[in-house]
Fold these 2 entries.
Entry 1:
Amino acid sequence: MKNKVFIIINVFGMGIAIACCIVGYLALEYDSDFDAIHKNSEHIYRVSAVRKFENKLTKFGYAAFPLGEIVEKTFTDVNGSSRYFRSHSNFKKGDDLFASNLSYVDPDFFGMFTFDFISGSPSNLKDKTSAFISENMAVRLFRSPEAALDKTVTQVYGTELKEIKIAGVFREPPMNSSFYKDEGQAFMNFENVKDEYKTIKADDWKEESTLFVQINDLQRVQTVHQQLQPYKENNNKVRNDFQVNEFALDPFSSMAHRDRAEEVRAETWAAPPLSAIVGSAIMAVLILLIACFNLTNTAIAISSRRLKEIGIRKVMGSMRAQLIIQFIGETTFICFLSLLMGVCLADVLVEGWNLMTANNIHITPHYTPAFLLFMVGVLLFTGVLAGSYPAFYISKFNPVNILKGKLQFGGTNYFTRTLLGLQFAISLISIVSAIGFLQNANYQREYDLGFDIRGSVIAWVNNQSEFTTYRNALLENPEILSIAGAQSGIFSSRAHEPVKHEALQAEVDIIDVGDNYLKTMDLKLIAGRDFIKDSETDQKESIIITQKMATLFGWDQPLGKEVKWKDSVKLIVVGVVKDVYTLGLWREMEPMMIRYVLPDKYSQIVVSTKSDNVSSVNAFMNKQWNQTFPNRLYNGYILSSQLQQVDQLNMSIVYGYTFLGVIAMLLSVTGLFSLVSLNIVKRMKEIGVRKILGASVFNITQVINMEFVIILVVASLLGSWAGLAWSTVIMSSIWKYYQGANIITVILASSLLFIICIATIGFKVFAVATMNPVKTLRDE
């Protein structure tokens, strides 16, 4: 109670640090429990295709359609199997259209995976006309889960409508699940794939889906793996572009984490980026260390005022162990108060975390025995770490020296200086990271991807007739500058296949576009020509390539060069465009090859406008779509949303590090203020003598501040280096193309540090430097 201000500051600071640790713990738990809801997860495997190309093995989370039926009928060691295939259909109830988030699965699906049913029976999955929906979907469609059972809705795909019955409602799976969908989800029998996708045949080895198998006897897993291998030939005979080296069995229990690490292409959700999880936990621990260091310095400062109390306790018979227990107990009690505050603040920080991570991660506070054990561990860790040094250091003093007044205690020493330096170094890591990510956001916002991403909108159509009808409706809008058609395009359904030139073979992105596509997407032609309208020759053999593809094959003069595609199709280069970042800023830019298709192959419509008008044009396209295709949900996609995702992620990280940096800096300057105050108290008579002997205010200020300036300089160097390394590691784990923190970042962060520190202690130092020396030198 005699040190209320210092204690309140430390309780509040430590409370925030503990709340950060709670968020870090929940994030780690979220990641470690990914797919833990499924009780059979240890016995479930995904059949993945391992492809070998250019001596590199790549895993794909797919298997050919027929393999699922073969496994179900002939593999006796497999106790259950299910294919998993996403639908592009919608649900319609009355005049309202809803995104269905529908997936087609086999009847064993609900037996293999754990879904908590509110109503209905999973056995009805055998019925083609039955649908099973999640609680959120039931509320959207029928306002309550109970009201949904046995009701009917209309499934809409293409121009077809089909009545289906709601046969069951299940509780929403947690977000850390491979099958999670944020707006609810639905499942239907796999046989419905043939109705929606009429070109797909059950025996077509070119078509793929996700295939899961359940093997109850784990000793038979290797046998099942061996039984799968002969079917590689079925695939390889018809897929020259996709030669399977092996069919692998991926354990479902750790599948999401491997997909994250190996960037496996799959229809299921991968676990969140490891950098987001581990980075948050590490920063939380660093903030906790700052709080502990601050409490240590505060405990030392408070103890310096209790020296006579300690001396009297020793004279009265207190053992050193008792004093150690007392001091650590007092510190632990302060940490306990901080723990209570941290638990209260955790709910607020969790909401902030969820807002920053958007739809990527969503954690919820829950207090399990493991969490309570974690809290006890945090309490003991902080109490012992913060209290040990003052307890062991002060308890060893000789009571005679204390009571005679000969003991000089207070000010700074190597230990307190080290703690203060570490505090500011850790603070700088957050500040450098925040400024670095802000700079990176501006850099990536203006990054040239090689095409007009900011003014383009794409929508999908089913055929040439729909394309023509919709295009004519859109021509009414004067804000639309250009319209083109395509079968596949940038950021949309592109292929990635091998091509050959003489002995050299490489994989490239392939898009199939129609007339006016280069102009509409603002692809910059730097050599050769565009495709000729309605040209059969261009359709059969002409291609336009990117600079990177020309460089890959070593072509200085690429025009007229010949490549082979699918081992037999000869293609001639007629044009070269500026490099295009087909994967945005997230992954390495791929070489790209552009082919020409006629309008009868169009499956999408591409619209360009000025970047300022893209939102209004998209709204207009939505309106015209609803009038043109009243039974289908608008599927338009603003390409610049890719940049918005990058920007949102950058700013989320900026907000997170800014928050941590502010907290760390507040704790650090509190420690600095404490040490400066103690140092001044210890040197008051020295300062008075210096003033009498003619020392100036500047000289006094220099004497008081010099050691702290050195501490800040060392902390700036250490913290800036660590911040540069840390932010670079985080950025490189998220993006391929970014601007890392640089010297400007370091200068800004270090300048901010010094300004805050000067503002914190400046008035205190100035007051002492201008004080009348008589007040410090008199004894009475």
Entry 2:
Amino acid sequence: MKMRVLQDRPASDPRASEAAPEAERAPRFRVSVSVWLTVGLGAIVSVFLAGNLLVQRSTNQATQGVTRVQQELEPLARRARELSDAIAGHERAILSYLKPGNPGDHAAIDRAQVRMQAAITEHVQRTKADADLNSTRNLADEVARHQRNGAELVQRFDRRSAFLGICWSLMDGLKTRIAGAGAEGLTVGDNVFARRSLAELAQALDAVRSGFTAQLAQPSTGSASYSARSEVAFRRKLLEHSAEFKGSPGVAWYELVREDFERASRLHGAVRQLDDELESGRQDFAGSGAALIEQVRVSFEEPALRALAHSATVARATTQEAENMIFAVSLAVLAVIVLVTAATLYGIMLPVRRLTAATRNLAGGALATRVPRGGVLELDELALAFNQMAGELAIAERAVRSQKAELEERVAQRTRQLRMLAHHDPLTSLPNRRHLFAYLHDALRRAARNQQRLTVLFLDLDNFKIVNDSLGHEYGDRVLRIISERLRAAIGDDGFVARLGGDEFTLILPDAGTMEEVESQAAKMVAEFQRPLTIEQRELLIGVSAGAAVYPDHASDAAALLRAADAALFRAKELGRNRACVYSPELLVATSNRFQTEQALRRAIEVEDLVLHFQPQVSLATHETTAVEALLRWRQGDGRIVPAAEFLAVAEQSGLIIELSGWAMRHAAQAVGLWRKAGWPKARVALNVCSQQFMSGDFIGSIERLLQMHQVPANCLELELTETMLQTGAVTIDTLRGLRALGLSVALDDFGTGFSSLTSLEKLPLNRVKLDRSLVASVDTNSRSAAIARSIITLCRSLGLQVTAEGIERPAQLDFLADCGDVSVQGYYIERPAAASEVLGIISAMSGRMKMLLGLVERSEEVDISASGVVRLRPRRR
């Protein structure tokens, strides 16, 4: 079946034609056997008759030739002389125009071209003999080519003049621009003060102009080399002082000078190239003109003279030629008979033998066998069919082999890809979890056999989710790849690093030393990331927490060793992140407790075993409550109320913090709405916001929906954000501005515990600053603490920010803050956190309570002049 399909394919199939060798091409003439024999007989008769006709014609032509040569001799010589003169005049006009300094005369060139064209046209029109006509036409082509060469030389010369003018104009403009920028300096008395950089640049430009002038005057190799060196020197000076020039006269001036000089340099190069082409073109043009004049003389003048002498000889030779021709005709007839016989044998017998041999080869498996085309029509068509059949078979075999090889390559490639994906992380190309366990099992066997210790190090990137949320996941992927490269470089060839997923990495360090050396290795790995990462021209500092476990000290199998390292990693995060921690048995107990806490907290969120307590923030100026801070509590099954400090770290680690924050915001908005309706129209609640919730893309939208759901105004909420959350990037500032535009108040919580406090105050759009309890803890016992707290309060108020002091636990602290002006206070000494149902009663009694607290110590009034020069009364303590 397959063989029949291949034979039925038409001969015009492109694949068959592409595969066909040279032997398959069809001969120019194909005839059948009967036509072949008829043509042979006709050739014999034709040769015999043609011989007789040629004898008679040669005699007549010889006689007529003598007369024709005599009639055409004199006009041919005259036209040849006129043509030579026209060619010489055209050459002189072109070469005169190309001389530097001579005024161009296109009219003279046009007149010379018209004269030369007229001469060659007349010569062509009056040439009658076929042989002379061919020579004349060739001569006309040469003249036209010579004329085009002249026109090209003129065009090149005109282009050179134009380039030269533009180049000098750019050079003059550069000189003026550099001089205008201060290269000529300022004359003071007999002294001239100029910027050294501009003066050197002006000197370099003068050297370029001198080299250009010398090269134009004498285009020698030395001049061109000097000009090139001067251009390189100018570019070097311009680049050497680029920073100074960009500063003054400016970037625009620098770019104009650089672009004009580069353009002038390119034009200069074009002029040099055109000079070389013109010099070569002049020589070729002069040589071609001389060759044309010589060709006219040799081809027409001298043949005319020789033709007259030859005409007499022709007449004498005509008779002898006729006799010789009769003899030649007889020989030709005999030769034709022999050729017809040989051609018959060649056209029939040889193709039959070739077909027989090719059939044997093809049957033996030689698919490249082809039969040369030729012979009579019937045998040629048979050879064509044979070649097409062999070509189709070869194509089919090649296609099968190609498809087989391609399939095998794809299978091998896919196998390699699957093996790679099965054991490596697709993002970083690091080994994955499966590869890690396989390697760790082998490493533990080697360590046991060699009685060596082995270290497993867990690494986790601190707050990496903020990078993804603020800069995008694509940028986060680049960060992970750069970190992977740094880890590879840090552990060297002896260690092993794998990515478990997300921002977690595992390192295996064989041949661990003492515990002190293990701790040193872990600390060194953490310190490796104190250097910033440079990604897309942005420096990024990523903290790393590490947990280490050692075989056989901490565990004897892979799973237990990894659990121990993970427990140590969690301990490092609990201690404040960006540090390393080595495993101890107590950590597993803590991990188990943490897991139990996480599970219980999940159940508490599902059944809403949560409660909000509210602590007042009171103004010392008005003694009124300005807001209450919402504090999350966990109500456990035994009735105990657990403060947030005991479970907040677990919530952050497990990701439950977002659900807890959302729950707190909903219930706080509901409570403030009830208070406003129940008699506290200025009710405001302060809420802590977690970083994951703040960095979400729809945080402002969620706040708007929350306000609409509970029908409360935006000014009833104050969002408290920590310094570690508020990075002064564009995304953070835009979000804060959106919140301020919505009408919400934004407070910077725990102020004084971070490292960028002043930067935050300057750049972030805030309403309030909440001083951390550590700032006011010793203001009543330590004069330095009091001075620092007073200075920060003064700074914040000068920036238009309201201030709230947290952690007021003693009367003396309240007494100190009362001397600091309008400050809001919050703490157990003022009021403990209470349930939402108790808030209204506390608020109504707060004014009297504050007056009582401030009046606990008997006071008199004394005059106090503050550092700012304001005179005010200050209570005096007895």
